[in-house]
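Human:
I keep going back and forth on a fold encoding question. Comparing notes only helps if you start from a blank page. Show me how you would write down a chain together with its backbone fold. Write it directly below this note and I will take it from there.

Assistant:
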Amino acid sequence: MSKPLPPAADAAARRRFHAGLAGAVLAAGAAPVMAAPRAVSGAPLARGRFGLSADFTLPSPAYLHLVPFDRTVYSEGTDWTLQADGMIRIQTTGLYRLALCLDWVAQQGTDVDLRLYGIRRKVVGAPPAPSQKDDRLASVSVAGADAPRLARFRGAWTPGRVPAGGTVAIEVSVAPASTVTIGDGVVASHTALQDAIVGQAAADMLSVRARVVGPDRVRVVLHNTGLLADVDVPAGELRVMATSMTRSSGDSADAWHMVHTTLEPLKAGELVYAIARNRTIAGDMIQASATSFLHIERHA
């Protein structure tokens, strides 16, 4: 059998394992004793935040770009220095937390692929330029929305008599404007083309075709594929839905997203910085607003 601990040692052991035994203590009816927060030695917590003085347009797609933060919003103490290129040089070794928030601009036709942004660390002695070899402290990839944009029309149409083997047609404008053009896709239907109205035989012989013939302009053709009889089609509602077929079809909204690190040990002389990329779309832009910033805190 193991020997019982002396009272002092037993008390120390119980303090060490207090967190793990909290459930048992509560079950026994004893009031839990909250451990006092551990004091951080040295200087008190220091904070700094850096922003953009002008909008930043990513120079090219596919490549990671250094976000050139050049404006000091506030900075407490002397634990870091903002460099001319937008990197932050650590002056005091310690535990740090960093947060990055970017205010992406809302644009039409740009939210089609991935935006990526994050926080990197360059160790002492590494080449000065941003590199894929730099440590990734935090990173996020934001999926784009490649959903097609739609334009619609709903309105009354009376096709009338459709001769055997013949067609009747109508052209309509779809809305919203500037959505589709020649080469885009379209589908159409007519509410009178049902067995209860024109009969099953006629309904089976009639087909509805549609195509985009100009900017926001659609031609709908009703074709009587039968060769023996004309078909009378009464009034009904024509419904048209046109869809953009181009690759860059989504829209990007104003987007604010924050990413932050855990507590990271950083050494004096190391550099931290923010990167951003749009994988395929040129001209993507980060706005110089209060929600575009790189934030740094020293905790110990």
